[in-house]
């Protein structure tokens, strides 16, 4: 078994694709084809003017060459453009016109992160010193601009928001224009950032004069790992190959830009079962990937036994139910006779169960499950005062609830279910169901098997201290962890969120949840159709 | 105001039955009565420890039992001592009586104990991770069948989150016994929860039975544990060029196939062909760079073994709600095959191979290509053409066509099994839905909404009638809702120009109705 481990290289290698890809692009519609041709002609003309002798050639080969040359030119231009902007970016400072942004908050945050990544600056306040104002203010349709809605200030906002000091709506835009400060729309900003941060489109290698340039080819292959143009029976010295007649699984980036994702060779051992998953799909086995062998046979027999007793119990419950129904019919309401007989049956059931199951996880939840005199069970395990348990079914257009059971009856049933329930010790998490929290392969695997009872030392990983520990309890009492825990700074953002989810006493809520006049004159309440983007939502 | 309303509702609907109250009056001691003494002592010690560490707890909550010990937290059951002292409307929401999520909204009667679940997050979690979980729960206020955040607080490194207690049973105790109607109820709750959180740009990432609190008795389920949840992000830069599908959009929540041919896609096709040819050849000619200096593929792979979608295993950098839908598909397999767990893989490689032995090489290749990956294997157990999911279920469960005898104590409280025809019709529909939610290509996988409108789950009244809109979404009164850059929210009075600042969970319009504040105003 071998799995590749690769060093991380922050700089993606520029891939040069094989020249074979050139010319395989075909437009779909005749229209597009024509368009492409005419633009190609135009560009050909332009390049004639720029005096490239090869552009004038008329045979197919040179047409290809021409296209490649153009691709190369575009590529160079792109590189040039990128390098120009990347160099300039640290000198740029941006201010976001918060009143006039048509992009989602998340997208804006992404853009801000991108700007910072490119070493640009973001200014919280508008001044003459900023380089670009980011604003979607549109001088033409200003009054209808739906984004203007946000200009209404919310009095009493929790945040000491710069909103208060901000110059509202068009003013910033006008100011920028007057100060001759550039204004970029959010979409323009996004296009620029995306282009700057994306890989440069694959350049097409110019066809080397007749003989391919060996050095170039080698370089390409070295980087991409593509076997294109290579005798597939040839092995290369800097690659790892699977053993002859071995079985493997290999997952690679189709573009060849990212490191191998999975490379795993299976090494079968004599006399042992296959090391790769085999689908047996035997209904008698516990699992489709297990053959039905002696072990599974034993397991099946055990389970069948359990199932049988479960079923017996279920049957008994049905019987109990029937008895209760009869009793309900016989005597309506709270009747001692019924209580007694049901009680007997109940006791019998419980006693049986006690033998093999840890019984009754908590009587409390039977109470907590909330049977109300109104006859409704709270689905939540908490009582509610309105019907709520059943998804509606509707009959001829009107709602009909299925809940018509007598509350005492339900209570009884509830009790039964609870008695047959396993003890409430946390359901053992099967080993193969443990989850991992890592978001990428390089992070240390967090295998926190934290507080498991009576296990002695509980090893794990502390995200606060960024270190592994051999015992949970010792670690959290340790100096390093205590220092982290005592430092309020570490919890600043969390605290600000916790402030927003504070539970409000009724009186406080009453006062807060009142209509009030805006504490400053606001313009006519504009009723702007928020649904003006016709996009249909499919969520 | 809401409080008065609540009180009124309460008196309207309850005629208190003293006998019931007495009989079921709570005394905490019974909670742990039946536990083994050592465990009881341990739980008591834990409760004592938590009370000491987070002193704010003591005044308002009385811890009575432990509900679960997870990998990242312990969860306790507690009495909400002063339930009616608080405004409970923000986390209750306003799901109408016709909604399956009404259980979340119905006010609690004053004469009975209200239980909460207190999640004690292990202090080795980073504050940022905890913040993420709480922020996401806050954004999920008002979502149906989703565990609602009542409040959360911190003392030093110890953070606790308070949620309503949800009665539930261990999946192992009911998944083989639940008849079709129960499965439908389970899935409807699940998909409603997912529909609502995905609409808020949130992926749960850890959908599995332990994180879906289902009560077979009432047929109500609640999605919990947002510890691994993340937000759907639009991928930019180089990662965006990796996949042949777009990011999630409102119109295409699972992304869309990129159809335009580019030199990139043409190249990919060619590489794919070569790889296929190579796989057919001898193994010693298949290799990979030894000292790979190329950057490592980065993708969120948080989740639980056996529940990860192909795109997670294939390291798609641009994941969306489709990953949750796949996990629901895996749960649906448990019901239909009556086996749990099904996948036993210990790592991503094995997980991928397990799926490959079922779906076959061709489908795996196609799924891989969608995310810009090559999938090559010569393992003899991976067929070229695999089997369909219905076939898989039929082979694993020979009695698939036999209706189960319902347990009358459970939802829908039927006493006799459905007719064979009825069962076969349901089964056909179930298997059809299964194929759509276990679709290996994420872009083609059904969205929760599509699943809810599929024949198997559809109800007479469409799910749209009950969906809670975003605060500033497509609700009928959305024009009067506003949010500033800092997330401060307010609603406006349509005629007086007065405003009201709102808290998370307030101002959520449902279906075609205005939000609770604009009721009767628009
Ligand atoms: N609101 C609730 N009502 C009842 N029980 C709950 C509630 N919330 C959580 N639980 C119980 O506690 C267990 C653990 O909760 P949760 O999944 O949120 O924590 P976790 O530590 O992240 O879990 P894990 O690591 O095991 O996945 C749940 O599986 C469930 O049994
Ligand atoms: Mg969990
Ligand atoms: Zn620590
Ligand atoms: Zn992808
Ligand atoms: Zn409203």
TrEMBL record, chain A:
An example Gene Ontology molecular-function term: zinc ion binding
PROSITE patterns, per the entry: ZF_DBF4
Residue ranges constituting the DBF4-type domain according to the UniProt record: 455-504
Region (Disordered): 1-71, 143-165, 287-317, 508-539
Any Pfam family hit: Dfp1_Him1_M
Chain segments annotated as coiled-coil in the UniProt record: none
Keywords: Metal-binding, Zinc, Zinc-finger
Gene Ontology CC: one annotated term: Dbf4-dependent protein kinase complex
Signal recorded as keyword: no
Acidic residues bias: start-end ranges: 521-539
Single GO BP term: positive regulation of nuclear cell cycle DNA replication
Top-level lineage group: Eukaryota
Keyword GTP-binding: no
Record-linked SMART domains: ZnF_DBF
Record protein name field: DBF4-type domain-containing protein
UniProtKB/TrEMBL annotation, chain B:
EC number, UniProt record: 2.7.11.1
Enzyme class, first EC level, given as a word: transferase
Keyword list, A-Z: ATP-binding, Coiled coil, Kinase, Nucleotide-binding, Serine/threonine-protein kinase, Transferase
Pfam family, one: Pkinase
UniProt GO BP: mitotic DNA damage checkpoint signaling
Domain of life: Eukaryota
Signal peptide: none
Cellular component GO terms held in the UniProt record: nucleus
Coiled coil: 40-67
Protein kinase domain sequence ranges: 61-457
Region listing for Disordered, in residue ranges: 273-302
GO molecular function (one): ATP binding
SMART domains: S_TKc
Protein name (database record): non-specific serine/threonine protein kinase
């Amino acid at each position: 078994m071998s799995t590749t481990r690769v060093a991380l290289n922050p700089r993606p290698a520029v891939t040069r694709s094989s020249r074979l890809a050139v010319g395989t692009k075909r437009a779909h519609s005749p229209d597009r084809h024509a368009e492409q041709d005419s633009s190609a002609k135009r560009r050909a003309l332009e390049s004639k003017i720029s005096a490239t002798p090869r552009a004038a050639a008329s045979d197919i080969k040179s047409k290809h060459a021409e296209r490649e040359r153009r691709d190369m030119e575009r590529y160079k231009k792109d590189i040039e453009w990128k390098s120009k902007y990347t160099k300039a970016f640290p000198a740029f400072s941006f201010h976001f016109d918060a009143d006039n942004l048509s992009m989602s908050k998340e997208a804006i945050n992404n853009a801000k992160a991108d700007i910072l990544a490119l070493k640009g600056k973001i200014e919280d306040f508008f001044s003459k010193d900023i380089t670009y104002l980011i604003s979607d203010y549109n001088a033409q349709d200003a009054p209808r601009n739906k984004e203007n809605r946000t200009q209404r200030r919310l009095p009493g906002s929790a945040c000491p928001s710069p909103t208060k000091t901000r110059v509202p709506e068009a003013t910033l835009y006008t100011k920028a224009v007057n100060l001759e400060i550039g204004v970029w729309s959010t979409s323009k900003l996004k296009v620029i950032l995306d282009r700057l941060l994306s890989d440069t489109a694959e350049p097409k290698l110019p066809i080397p004069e007749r003989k391919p340039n060996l050095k170039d080819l080698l370089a390409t292959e070295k980087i991409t790992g593509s076997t294109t143009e290579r005798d597939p029976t040839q092995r290369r010295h800097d690659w790892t190959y699977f053993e002859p007649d071995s079985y493997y699984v290999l997952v690679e980036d189709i573009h060849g830009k990212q490191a191998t994702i999975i490379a795993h060779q299976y090494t079968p051992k004599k006399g042992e079962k296959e090391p790769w998953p085999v689908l047996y799909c035997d209904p008698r086995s516990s699992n489709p990937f297990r053959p039905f062998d002696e072990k599974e046979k034993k397991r099946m027999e055990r389970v069948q036994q359990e199932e049988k007793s479960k079923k017996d119990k279920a049957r008994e419950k049905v019987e109990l139910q029937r008895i209760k129904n009869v009793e309900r019919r016989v005597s309506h309401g709270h009747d001692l006779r019924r209580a007694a007989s049901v009680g007997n049956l109940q006791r019998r059931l419980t006693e049986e169960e006690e033998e093999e199951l840890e019984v009754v996880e908590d009587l409390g939840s039977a109470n907590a499950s909330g049977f109300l005199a109104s006859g409704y069970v709270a689905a939540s395990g908490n009582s509610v005062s309105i019907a709520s348990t059943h998804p509606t079914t509707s009959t001829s257009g009107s709602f009909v609830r299925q809940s018509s059971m007598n509350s005492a009856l339900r209570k009884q049933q509830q009790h039964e279910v609870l008695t047959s329930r396993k003890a409430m010790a946390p359901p053992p998490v099967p080993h193969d169901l443990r989850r991992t929290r890592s978001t990428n392969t390089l992070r240390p695997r967090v295998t926190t098997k934290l507080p498991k009872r009576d296990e002695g030392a509980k090893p794990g990983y502390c995200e606060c201290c960024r270190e592994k520990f051999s015992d949970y309890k010792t670690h959290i009492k340790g100096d390093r962890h205590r220092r982290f825990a005592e430092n309020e700074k570490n919890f600043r953002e969390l605290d600000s969120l916790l402030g927003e989810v504070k539970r409000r006493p009724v009186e406080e809520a009453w006062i807060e949840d009142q209509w009030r006049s805006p504490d400053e004159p606001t313009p006519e309440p504009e009723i702007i159709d928020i649904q003006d983007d016709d996009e249909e939502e499919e969520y | 105001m809401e409080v008065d309303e609540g009180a009124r509702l309460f008196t309207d609907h309850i005629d208190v039955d003293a006998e019931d109250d007495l009989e079921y009056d709570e005394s905490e001691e019974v909670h742990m009565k039946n536990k083994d003494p050592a465990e009881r002592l341990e739980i008591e010690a834990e409760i004592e420890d938590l009370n000491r560490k987070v002193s704010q707890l003591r005044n308002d909550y009385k811890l009575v039992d432990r509900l679960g010990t997870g990998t990242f937290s312990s969860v306790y059951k507690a009495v909400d001592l002063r339930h009616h002292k608080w405004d409970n409307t923000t986390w209750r929401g306003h799901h109408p009586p016709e909604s399956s999520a009404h259980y979340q909204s119905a006010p609690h009667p004053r004469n009975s104990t209200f239980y909460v679940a207190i999640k004690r997050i292990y202090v080795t979690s980073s504050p940022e991770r905890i913040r993420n979980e709480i922020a996401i729960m806050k954004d999920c206020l008002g979502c149906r069948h989703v565990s609602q955040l009542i409040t959360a607080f911190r003392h030093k490194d110890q953070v606790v989150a308070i949620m309503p207690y949800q009665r539930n049973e261990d999946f192992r105790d009911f998944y083989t016994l639940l008849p079709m109607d129960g499965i439908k109820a389970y899935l409807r709750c699940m998909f409603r929860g997912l529909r609502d959180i995905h609409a808020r740009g949130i992926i749960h990432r850890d959908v599995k039975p332990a994180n879906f609190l289902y009560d077979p008795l009432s047929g109500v389920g609640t999605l919990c544990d947002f510890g691994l949840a993340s937000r759907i992000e639009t991928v930019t830069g180089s990662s965006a060029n990796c996949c042949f599908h777009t990011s999630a959009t409102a119109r295409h929540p699972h992304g869309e196939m990129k159809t335009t041919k580019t030199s990139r896609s043409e190249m990919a096709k060619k590489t794919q062909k070569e790889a296929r040819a190579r796989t057919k050849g001898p193994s010693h000619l298949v290799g990979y760079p030894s000292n790979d200096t190329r950057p490592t593929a980065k993708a969120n792979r948080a989740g639980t073994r056996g529940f990860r979608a192909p795109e997670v295993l294939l390291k798609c950098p641009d994941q969306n709600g489709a990953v949750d839908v796949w996990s629901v598909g895996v749960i649906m397999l448990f019901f239909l095959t009556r086996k749990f767990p099904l996948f036993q893989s210990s790592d991503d490689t094995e997980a991928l191979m397990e799926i490959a032995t079922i779906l076959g090489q061709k489908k795996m290749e196609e799924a891989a290509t969608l995310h810009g990956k090559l999938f090559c294997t010569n393992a003899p157990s991976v067929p070229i053409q695999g089997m369909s999911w219905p076939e898989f279920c039929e082979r694993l469960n020979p009695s698939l066509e036999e209706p189960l005898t319902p347990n009358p104590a459970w939802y829908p409280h039927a006493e006799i099994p459905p007719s064979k025809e009825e069962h076969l019709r349901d089964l056909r529909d179930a298997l059809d839905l299964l194929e759509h939610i276990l679709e290996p290509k994420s872009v083609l996988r059904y969205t929760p909404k599509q699943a809810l409108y599929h024949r198997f789950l559809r109800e007479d009244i469409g799910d749209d009638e009950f969906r809670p809109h975003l605060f500033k979404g497509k609700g009928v009164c959305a024009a009067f809702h506003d949010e500033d850059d800092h997330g401060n929210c307010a609603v406006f009075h349509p005629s007086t120009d007065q405003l009201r600042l709102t808290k998370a969970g307030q101002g959520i319009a449902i279906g075609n109705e205005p939000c609770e504040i604009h009721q009767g105003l628009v």
